[in-house]
Amino acid sequence: MTAHSDHRPVETVETAINLLGVLKQAGRTGMGVTEVATELGLAKSTAHRHLQTLADRGLIVRAGDIYRLSSWFLDYGVHVRNQHPLYDLARPKVDELAAETDEKVWCVIEEDDTGVHLYGADGAHSVTTHARVGNRTPLHQFAAGKAILANLPEGQIARIIDGHGLSERTPQTITDPGELRTELDSIREEGYALNREESVPGVHAVGAPVRDEDGHAIGAISIAGPANRLRGELLTQELPDLLLGAVNEVEVNLAHI
Amino acid sequence: MTAHSDHRPVETVETAINLLGVLKQAGRTGMGVTEVATELGLAKSTAHRHLQTLADRGLIVRAGDIYRLSSWFLDYGVHVRNQHPLYDLARPKVDELAAETDEKVWCVIEEDDTGVHLYGADGAHSVTTHARVGNRTPLHQFAAGKAILANLPEGQIARIIDGHGLSERTPQTITDPGELRTELDSIREEGYALNREESVPGVHAVGAPVRDEDGHAIGAISIAGPANRLRGELLTQELPDLLLGAVNEVEVNLAHI
DNA sequence: GTCTGTGTTCGAATAGCGGGAACACACTTT
DNA sequence: AAAGTGTGTTCCCGCTATTCGAACACAGAC
Fold first, then answer.
1. At what angle do helices A11-26 and B44-56 cross, to 10 degrees?
2. Which residues pair with A42 in a beta bridge?
3. What CDD domains does UniProt report for this protein, alphabetically (chains A, B) (predicted)?
4. Considering only CA atoms, which of A29, A15, A13 is closest in space to residue A68?
5. What are the strands, taking DSSP E only, across B122-178?
6. pLDDT at A6
7. Pairwise CA distance, residues B66 & B40, whole Å
8. In-domain check, residue A49
């Protein structure tokens, strides 16, 4: 209900997070003390002290006079991924689907009202989009996301649609709340979601939700490929059938944990 | 020479990092406010405020009254991995080697005087050890690590051997500095390193360094398998040959960036 | 209905964060 | 050579923002 928290945050921690964000953007090049300080509007001394503590704790690494993010994040990130129940369960299915269809297959989970790409497998003729593992994407913009969104508790659906607004990604992206709701109805009815160039021009996709025992989606699996290949009955029949069989198996295994 | 820094750290940031560490340990179960507070010796209110800011910034996610790490770390971690020059270059070779040998193949990099597992590929008969992507391991304890260690600048080698001490992992782990130095000499001479149950009982491995234009190792690739399969000429001839060919190609590509 | 466990909020004291100025040092520039 | 410009580093002081403890709300157990 409340768009969370005016509650006074720990500002020092926030600057540390901002610092890490800036270093992420800097990438492999990294940044020096003064550069970080000006970028964040801090005194050189404070930037220095922050960088030093983060380096001492191993979050960032110093090479000469430039700092960059260390593999500490890889360690934590992989840990998060491995802990997720869908990772172990969906990964083999995702690999299978990629091998069978020769297309790009994704496993996506819901987190904080958005979709997160947990695992992806390449088929022989995979399209490469900008989607990467760890990426957060608004749920209404892609097949897996819509499949999830259609199967969330009603309160959460309302919060997502009315709250954040429906940002546009391509001209085909559904940005009208009413239109999206009827789309979600049809997704629930069919059991799967389609994406016709709504997130990437020239790319179509099919997505199906993975639901828990309450029927609420915890994630989804999707198959994506070039629009001229994924069309007709392949897009509306064969791939959905394949996909629904796969997610069904995942759901069964999920229940038996 | 100095084991770095008595320099006054930013304590607030340190507690935030500690908090994340505790939440990592808690895994998917997560932790509540009081649990975190007692674990870290903080007042409930401070733990509460920290958790709230971390959640607001998306680093952790709250489900009911328990908090756990979010995929924020996956995003940052994958970013770090993708940025590393060895990832793009070594990955195809690692996949190839795994397919050819049917064994487990790792790409390891050096960071902060330790080895970090950057990428791994499974062969048809892979052994599964506790090594995971993102894991930090002391360089002297495994084949890839020793291959790296043997090809670092002398100053850094001395710092690693004399500084941290040589911790034991199995009875076979080399813990004597003198013994390690002669081992490193032989590794430099042969071009590759062997690991005979020095990190995992029953597991042998071969590792070869990936060197930059100065001849210093930036990482290594290793092949690991059961001791009774990896022995004789396979271990000392065939696999090293295969491996040295692979790292050589990687080095060439590395120079042409 | 009481009790014990949560999470949450408030105010108040002081520790420690942040800033600025001076320092050391490495490269250019003249 | 010497002055100049850019680093990173250190110190100290003022004031803010962090921390704590205590009180509160709420839930479930007994």
1. 30
2. none
3. HTH_ARSR
4. A29
5. 136-138
6. 64
7. 16
8. yes
Inter-chain contact B77–A77, Cβ cutoff 8 Å?
Answer: yes
Q: Length of chain B in residues, anyone?
A: 257
Same domain assignment for residues A22 and A125: no
The per-residue pLDDT for range A62-84, each reduced to its tens digit, is 999 999 999 999 999 999 999 99
Q: Are residues A171 and A219 in the same domain?
A: yes
Cβ-in-10-Å burial (0-12, 13-18, 19+) of A155 comes to exposed
Range of the domain at A46: 11-70
Over residues A155-202, the pLDDT tens digits come to 999 999 988 789 999 999 999 999 999 999 999 999 999 999 999 999
Q: Is residue A2 part of a domain?
A: no
Whether A87 and A213 share a structural domain: yes
Band (A19; pLDDT cuts 50, 70, 90): very high
Q: Which residue of B has its CA nearest to A16?
A: B13
Confirm if B105 and B206 have CB atoms less than 8 A apart.
no
Q: Are residues B148 and B82 in the same domain?
A: yes
Strand D: positions under 7 A of a protein C-beta atom: 6-12, 17-23
> Are B144 and B221 found together in one domain?
yes
Nearest to A219 by CA among A149, A154, A138, A156: A149
Residues B30 and B89 in one domain: no
Q: What is the mean pLDDT of residues A17-34?
A: 97
Q: Using an 8 Å Cβ cutoff, are B203 and B194 in contact? A: no
> Do the chains contact at B71 and A109, CB–CB below 8 Å?
yes
Give chain A's domain count: 2
**Is the same domain home to B32 and B98?**
no
CATH number of the domain where residue A40 is located: 1.10.10.10
Our CA-based measurement puts residue A233 at a distance from the nearest CA of chain B, in whole angstroms, of 35
Q: What is the CATH number of the domain that holds B216?
A: 3.30.450.40
Q: What b/e sequence results for B10-43 when a residue is b if at least 16 CB atoms lie within 10 Å of its CB, and e otherwise?
A: bebbebbbbbbeebbebeeebbebeebbebbebe
